[in-house]
Amino acid sequence: MSVASIVLTASAERHAEKHQLTTTLMSLRLPVSCMTEDLISLETGDAGRHDFSIIQRRWVVAGNGAELEITLDHPARR
Hints:
Layout: E1 5-8, H1 10-18, H2 22-26, E2 39-44, E3 48-62, E4 65-73
Parallel strand pairs: 1-4
Antiparallel strand pairs: 2-3, 3-4
């Protein structure tokens, strides 16, 4: 299964840093089948659930390869 790399918006990055979620978010292995407007709910033991939304999918092509970047935003919007 192919996975996408994660990019955070400024507001998602601030939220992640405040709640010490940056490492967890950046190591997510979301499948390339994720779609814009999908919600990503990260459950943590002490702070409950943190909802992020996929706001952008971008293919980055370099040389003979391509990688999907998925941009997460917080607060999650529908």
